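Appendix C reproduces, verbatim, an entry submitted by the partner laboratory led by Prof. M.T., so that reviewers can inspect both the input and the predicted structure.
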Amino acid sequence: MSYLKAENLVSGQEGRAYVKIDGQNQELLYLKNVTATVEKKKQAVRTLGKRGDQFKSAGFSGSGKMTVYYVTSLFRQLMLQYMKDGVDTYFDIVIINDDPQSGFGSQSVVLKNCNLDKVVLAKLDVAEDFLDEEFSFTFDDAELLSSFTETA
């Protein structure tokens, strides 16, 4: 009988992430977590001979959120540039899962044309030992640069 071995699970802290802004790559060493999702947009279709709705895919929407330690001003600078000058910055994020213990190898995904939704401008919190911040973003394309292997 086959089963998934625990040693092959991918650790969530084994990997890297990079942001590419204006042709410059910066490793997100201060990243705590990132999640990107794609949601298909569907339209209801009614046809003769079928009482219920059918659905046809009609596009998609990409969005994500990221939590980082509060040690960088990069994203605040991007938001302030938009607020003050009207210059909106689009960037790519590369996320690499790479747990050397897992028998499934690594996976790399690039999220293209990311754009910030909201950013924490300033923060203090006496209840937290270490400050962090969460921001949301959208993206309009993605590419799977490398895939996990199917067997371990």
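The mean pLDDT is 94. Additional entries are available on request from the coordinating office.
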